[in-house]
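anyone seen this seq b4? input:
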Amino acid sequence: ASTDFKSATLSRENDPHYWTSRDPITVSAWWPFNNADITQMPAVKVAEDQSKLADFQNSDFISAENRKVEFNTPTLEFTHRTARVTIELKPGTGFTSVAGATVSLVSLSADNGNPTAIKTYNASGNTYEALTAPQTVAAGNQFVKVELGGGTFYFRPQNNVVLEAGNRYTYTVKVNATGLTLEGCTIGDWADGGGESGEAEDLGYNYDSNTKTYTVYNADGLMNVAELVNDIDLTGKGWTPIGTDYDNSYTGTFDGGGHTITGLTVTTNDEYAGLFGYLGNFNNGAATVKNVVMDGIQITCNHRSGYAGGVAGYSWGTIENCSVSGSVSGTMYVGGVVGVQRDRSITGCSSSATVKGTIKVGGVAGQTIFGATLTACYATGNVNIEIDRTQGISGGGLVGFNDGISLLSCYATGNVTSTGSSTGYVHIGGFLGDNYITVTACYWKNNHEQGIGYNRKSTKATKVDGTDVTWKNAVDAMNTALQNAGSEWRYELKGALPTLRKQ
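predicted toks r here
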């Protein structure tokens, strides 16, 4: 080969050609070749990892087919059978450097055993290159993946990318903290295959491989999921709950960062409905959702034995500092925050959502069981129970069926109403429907004179009547109980009803 690698002397080991006349001959040649059958040109199959120069170079398939060769000038001009993609990275908003990035091409065709993702070669500085088999990457698919600073960014082209043999496609990509911006294309030393200009789409989240969490910054990111760093409006977007059942539950930590998710809508025939369908499980109950405001949500679960809640349908995890407004409607287990809370805790949460269900229905939780605790939570939304003719019914302003281990410093003010009749038991109260645990410093004020429909404990909730017991009295008592329990949460009375703050 020449020093610039643009020319070489080729020979055939077996049965070489000897000129017997000066007449031109027709020649076909290719590289690489298969020694087992040198008469067949192999299909293009590039390396999955081209991050090393040798693997990048060895992925270049070349050929010269049916070329006329003259006796005096026996030269062949080869053409590339691969497409060459070059990525030029530039730092954007939130980055001062793109050094140390890992760049891959993704969503590629697997035809002829080719890889669906290729790790590129860092040719120089911020330039990355890869060779691919000819193919088309559909518009909207992820195409360029950049891993940088613990985050993962994607570029999704607005138009089909047609990667043709012998063409070079060079993309200049700016990496911003909120995604990738495509700035255009430049011409390389191969035939220019073009490129694309405009704003790149991305997944709406960054993934930190060290902490195994996602940073979400737009609606698409939340749809993909987890730290929320912006308010997100999901109005008009259908939502599929995260975590479909026990075996496929969400077991991470979702931190809303105090931001608001507006207009989340779920209408489903599946069993579990909410922002999260199923949160945690026996082995991974440490799942956490915290610091998120859910505004104007509409959750509807039509499953005959469904679990519906604003935050989660069914929770084994920890829920803290979450608030819900809008409506939650379902069948058996329905609550403004959760359908069922099993073990662990709900703390510092509130719901003004209208809640509607049939069996276990409450303003915050339809049911609490086993080791569940509710601390410093309140509900101000109305609760409606559509009584099933044969089932036992538990409905309350805060919790429908309360069988955890602790209920501390909570209150409810939404009216609790019911329609229909049942041959089973019907336990409805202004605060709790059924209660099997100790209730400490809890209050209600609504259309019910009875705070607990059916109470298996001697402790009870207290009605705020405005005369003997005022909201100031209630706040003082609830805060004393929180302080005694070592909680950081406190109530404050700045308006008609108490609100929560964390010290």
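The chain has two domains: 14-196, 205-502. Residues 196-202 have pLDDT under 50 and may be disordered. kinda curious what u guys think
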